[in-house]
Design goal:
It is built from four helices and two strands; from the N terminus they run ββαααα. Strands 1-2 form a two-stranded antiparallel ribbon. α1 packs parallel to α3. The longest helix is centred in the middle third of the chain and has 21 residues. The chain is flat.
Length: about 100
């Protein structure tokens, strides 16, 4: 069963459209990472308060981020790999059309 009704609005949140929800979904990681502007954060949080399906999705993404942080924290790449990556980054050339 889809969380969106056939008329394009989120189930349980009549004023929200599929496009508004898609916009939130695209921005959810900037909110979780604290990388969005204060204005955008306010807009996203207001949407979450008014749209249960998006709030549910946000909760899943928040849990996923916490799980990744728990399982991957503290691990560092071996120094040899880090040095090879630094070398490759320095050797990378960007070619642009003129």
């Amino acid at each position: 069963m889809s969380e969106f009704s056939s008329d394009g609005a989120s189930a349980g949140a009549d004023p929200r459209t599929k496009a508004e929800c898609a916009e939130l979904i695209a921005e959810v990681w900037t909110l979780l990472d604290g990388e969005c502007t204060a204005e955008n954060r306010k807009k996203l949080k207001q949407h979450l308060e008014e749209c249960p399906p998006c709030l549910r999705l946000f909760g899943i993404e928040e849990q996923f981020k916490a799980l990744i942080a728990t399982k991957c924290s503290g691990d560092k790449a071996p120094e040899g790999l880090r040095e090879r990556l630094r070398l490759e980054i320095r050797r990378t050339t960007i070619v642009r059309d003129v």
